[in-house]
Design goal:
Helices cover 3% and strands 40% of the residues. The protein contains one helix and 13 strands. A hairpin with a 2-residue loop joins strand 6 and strand 7. The chain is globular. The N and C termini lie far apart (51 Å).
Length: 161
Amino acid sequence: MPKLDLSQIASTSRCSYPGKLADGFEGRSSQAVGDASGITQFGVNLVRLAPGAQSSLRHYHMKQDEFLIMTEGELVLVDDNGAHVRHPGDCASFPARDANGHHLINKTDVPAAFLVVGTRTPTETAFYSDIDMKVNVDTDGYSFTRKDGSPLTADQIGDKT
């Protein structure tokens, strides 16, 4: 396989969170470098965070492993054990079913990036550590509910309608 040209791989900033929970992710972008190379058994994404941006809401997966390696800048990994500064070359892993919610935040004034590799499964359930929310993912897409499976309320997602 020839070298991947990152300038030719689309960058997306799509956020799937419902309602106002999707706000605040404008400085996050991702390139599906695994998809661009034809990999199908696991996902590989290059994620860039602008100053002040975060990677996601703090979460953990039930079926999918995640592994990340910092590639540029400085980010703060926040998990159940606190805040941990990460620099290029630093790695972290998040095994499936380990209920240690995590995300990354760029608290600097320069962009930062990391490569994340994760299992691909036909279905997935993830839980959000800091709010009463879970997501079920299947071929129909994302379905967000409270952790007990009941519907989210307008107040939970910041929707005033």
